[in-house]
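Long-time lurker. I teach an intro course on protein structure, and each term I like to show students one example going from raw sequence to a predicted 3D structure in token notation. This year I'd like something fresh instead of my usual example. Would anyone be willing to generate the tokens for the chain below so I can use it in lecture? Attribution to the forum is fine with me.
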Amino acid sequence: MRANWRLIRSMLSLHPRWFAVSFLGATVFAIATVTSSFAIRWVIDNVIVPRFEEGEVASSTVAAGVVMIVGIGLIRAVGVVFRRAFASAGMWRVAKSYSDQVIDKLVTQPLSWHRRHADGDLVARAGVDTETTVSVIAPIPFATSTILMIVISTIWLFITDIPLGLVAIVVFPLVIATNVVYERSVASHYTDAQEQLGTFSAAVHESFEGVQLVKAYGAEDRETVRLAGLADQVRRSRVEAIRRRSWFDALTDMTPALANIGLVLLGAARVDSGNVTIGEFSSVIFLFTLLVFPLRLIGYTLSELPRSMAAWVRIQSVVNEPLVADPARAVAVADPGIGVRLDAVSFSHEGSGIPAVRDIDLCLPTGSITALVGPTGSGKSTLADLVLGLTEPTSGTVALADGARLIVFQEAFLIAGSIRENVAFGTDVTDEEIWEALHGSSATEFVRDLPRQLDTIVGERGVSLSGGQRQRVALARALARKPSVLVLDDTTSALDPSTEAVILQRLRESLEATVLLIASRPSTIALADDVVFMTDGRIEAHGRHDELLASTPGYRAIVEAFESDRVETP
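-- Reply from a regular --
Happy to contribute to a lecture. Here you go:
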């Protein structure tokens, strides 16, 4: 119960004003509801019974009864409007706050943190888990007003007739006891279901991301079986939780119904003995009838708590996770002529005792283009991450020039928008600057030939463009930000050598950036100012392409292998 209170309090505290108005409306509704039973009692005792016994009732008495009932009804309606409107508005504001908290943490954590978490599961925590968490908060004001109604009704029942008050004392603790038993039995099932839903979301996200691979390898049946198995795990946990909830709902419905039957029998005896009037007895039955639905809503609220708690815990596990040290905070280079400098840099992946790179000493001049070459697993990508500040070195220092540090990947990712949106990508750049960036990536010609030029919609992931066109738009996106350090991860692999040469020449002329070019094409490597050759996580050689060909057998062998592979590839 303490954990449930912490959950509710945390949500209410996010937007207290909205919920304060909602609670005020709920209080007005509760008082008006109990007062309506007084009005029913007064009308029966002063209008209906006298009309049957005496044959007539004064018009003023009838008018007073009508005004009383209508007036109380209007007050209840106003209370309902304020309660529902402000509770719903508050609920969605809480949902937005939780989503913002999760998203803020996701965008703050560095790349190394994201690599340890499944994208689909993180998306579920910002979306599905958020909606599940807040589902319990909107009924809270009504549930609170119901508790207030129960307290006032119990006091009034004791004032009216002690035996009737004893019935209320028996009924309401039964509802609470039923909830305690239910909550303890169902909490673990909802927790399991929510965790499995996150796993399922991650698997679906992964499957959709790799849809081309699935189609190409005819793995549709395999993916169907895999996702069906994960969905079945969610279903089993949910079904078990719902089965227990159905018993809880039945008991919650049955308790007030049995209480009403008991009250009818007891009330009839009390009227017959003259201890209560017909009006008092009718008002008691009327009040309990009004309480049946609110009691069911309390049951609904309480039944939602375990599921909301499970989702809230998943959200908090992300929100409260300490920020991983930001590796982007590199030492500033004092010499303006140096763009990148690494001194005795080593890095080991978490849980691995073998360094991915070790004892790296590297100095790259500002404005230079350096090719990074090496066999698979030699540490090229890790070194690029260190240069970009995406990974923090285990030892040693990384010094970088001030300014943006950007990477352009071989597989260019474009959003399903226009050319302009893909190049600007959230930055405030003019069309002139966009065209300048497109010129730098040798994309001006084909963009001008498009039907709407910069306003041309490229489709999801740039599906309407060729591979080379996508790479050039992605490169323009980086150039528009005028980076100080630019890493090209086989970015020009889909381009012909002449276009590639034009792009690199324009980079030299237009950018004051240090360019690190991860390359596997001899033609690309030859265009670089110098080459860094890596093997086994170390820099084996650093110099000009022709010099390394003559002096380093390992470098010569891998370049020849690159060339041979391209010649033999049909």
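Some talking points for your students: The chain has two domains: 96-319, 331-568. Residues 331-568 form a domain with the Rossmann fold fold (CATH 3.40.50.300).
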